[in-house]
Each structure stands twice: as structure tokens, then as C-alpha cells.
Amino acid sequence: MTLETKRVFRFDVWYHPVMEQVFAQAPGIELQTIARNAPQEQILRALQASHAYQIPSARDELPEQWRADKRLLQQLPRLLCVSTNGAGYDTVDVAACTDAGVLVVNQSGANAQSVAEATIGLMIDCSRRVTESDRRLRTARGFTREDLMGAELYEKTLGLVGIGQIGARVARIALALGMSVLACDPWLSAEEIAARGAQAVDLPSLLTASHVVSLHCPRSAQTMNLMNTSTFRQMREGAIFINTARGGLHDEQALYSALASGHLGGAGIDVWDQEPPPLDHPLLSLPTVVGLYHTAGVTGEARQRMGEWAARQIIDLFDGQEGPRMVNPQVFPRFLERLQAQDQARR
Questions:
Q1: Cα 70 to the chain's mean position, in Å?
Q2: Which of 169, 216, 219, 246 is catalytic?
Q3: Residue 345 phi, psi dihedral angles, 5° rounding
Q4: Residue 192 falls in the annotated catalytic set
Q5: pLDDT confidence of 346, banded at 50, 70, 90?
Q6: Considering only CA atoms, which of 342, 326, 328, 343 is closest in space to residue 100?
Q7: Which entry of 7, 211, 216, 294 is annotated as an active-site residue?
Q8: CB contact at 8 A, 264 and 240
Q9: Which position among 20, 117, 192, 275 bears the catalytic label?
Q10: Digit-coded pLDDT (tens) for 225-277
Q11: Annotated catalytic, 51?
């Protein structure tokens, strides 16, 4: 008998067509797309027949019952791999997948350039008050140009909380703008941080010295509410805060208070506790806030890379090759055992 066709499941969130094109050219792999509003029984049957689950990375794109957690995994004995659309894996319980022998992979780096460019754009927007000026020009008169006076980023200090693929790109662009760059990253040595264009410091030093603080760290138990009333108070007066990483890394009420009191000069926020945030969200009432709808990484180029990388990584994994972006690489030997066992059962 021939080897069993490997089935890849995905929901009907937007994907670049390249993903389907790459899978279509791979023999022995079948991609199935199911609507999120399909009957639950239909969704579960399709998942139970699947070997790979291409899962949305954003929490609010996925109904909670379809997150890759222990409860769902117990119903999917054939599942070998969970692949996230982007770098994040908020919709995946990695520990539960590891216990179940399910390999988790992501597309880390696919949107790094897009997010880095958006980060710099938010920094410039907040410091030069671009969006604030646009809003006032459309709705009011009787103000002067000096009422919208901004500040240059040149010779200012940028503090990066995390200097991975995105943070390192932000550092390079900031250096080209004439900024000094500090970074706090517990996973990297001072030498590696220096090689990426920044001076290694601890978080308190970064907060007190930086004119702009930008988050580029993952969402975890250690980083939830990393920026709170206490840490915002440590930032220098008039500083700008940027978060293009993940919702939950900053306390939204604490940020509102820091901005409303005038302690902080502005904020560029791409990620929210609830996405999109409600229209009456307090932060959206402040003229010094530039808000995005988790779109920092949403470009045609990034989405094409995500779709192609995801498809090719899954194809390589089913061919027995290690994936370049494995979140729990210790599971790979067990993944191979389960893959081979399923193939042998079809012989």
C-alpha cells in the first residue's frame, strides 16, 4: 500500500495564495480549508483526520475551542504538527503539545522587516506628531504650527526590550537615523547584543535613559504586564512608548494614566488586550496615541513569506527533515517516530 496522504487543516482566515500553490505541487499532501462558522462537528471531523494544523496566531481570529490546548489535543490522536501563521503562538499551548508529542513550528522572521518598518514609522509619527496634526487639520482651526511642535529622533536614545530578528532590524534603522540604542534581552549575551547594534543594559537602566521604549519580546508568564504603573513611572518624562509585539505586555490602564497625566509624550500601539479594541477604549480618546489594528506585520511581502515558509516547512517535516523554526525542537524525534508509525500502519 502507498503511504497515507498527509492532510493539512486550516481555517478560512486570510492567507496568501502561495500557500495553496506550494501544497498543490507537493505529492501526497492535501490542504483542507474550513470556515470558522462551520458546524462544530464538521470542524472536529476535519481536524481529527488531519496530520498538521495550520493555526492562526492572533487570539481574536480563532474561537477559543479551536486553540491547540490539552483539551483539543486529546481529541486529535493523529495530529503530528501545529504550525502557526506568524512568529507568535498565543493560540497554542506549547507544553500541552510537547506532552502529546506534537511538534510546534512557527514562521519567525517572515514579517520581521514589516514590523521593524512599522515600529520606526510609529516612532516618527509620535515624535513629529504626524497623526495628531492630520486629525486637527481635518477637524479644527485656530491653532498654530507651534501648537503641534514635535521633536527629532536624531541623537535620542532608543530602548529595545528584546532584540531578536525584529528588534535587531529596528536597531539598524535607528542607528541610521543617528540614534543611540540600548537593549535588554535575557536570552542574549552583551557581546551578541553589541553585534546587533545596541548596548546591553538592565530594564530599569533602559527605562530611565530612553527617549523611546519599544517592546519586541514574546508574550509569556514572565512578560505579561511587563509595562505597568511602576515601569511607566520609571520612563523619562515626555518619552514615547511603542508596542508592536503582543497585547498583554503593557497594562492598558496604566499606559492611559501615564499619557493622560503628561508623564509620557506619546504612544504607538499596534497590539491590544482585545483586537480590535472597542471604539470607546480610553487610549483611543487621547490625541497622543497612534493606534493600529495589529497590522504592523500585515504587508503583501510578509504574508507571501508566511504562506510559502509555512507550506515548505510542513512539506519538509513530512519528508523527515528538521524544520528551521521549531518552537519545541525536543519533540522532533518523537514526531518522527509517530510519523513513521502512521506510515507503517498503512503498508
A1: 23
A2: 246
A3: -65, -20
A4: no
A5: low
A6: 328
A7: 294
A8: yes
A9: 275
A10: 999 999 999 999 999 999 999 999 999 999 999 999 999 999 999 999 999 99
A11: no
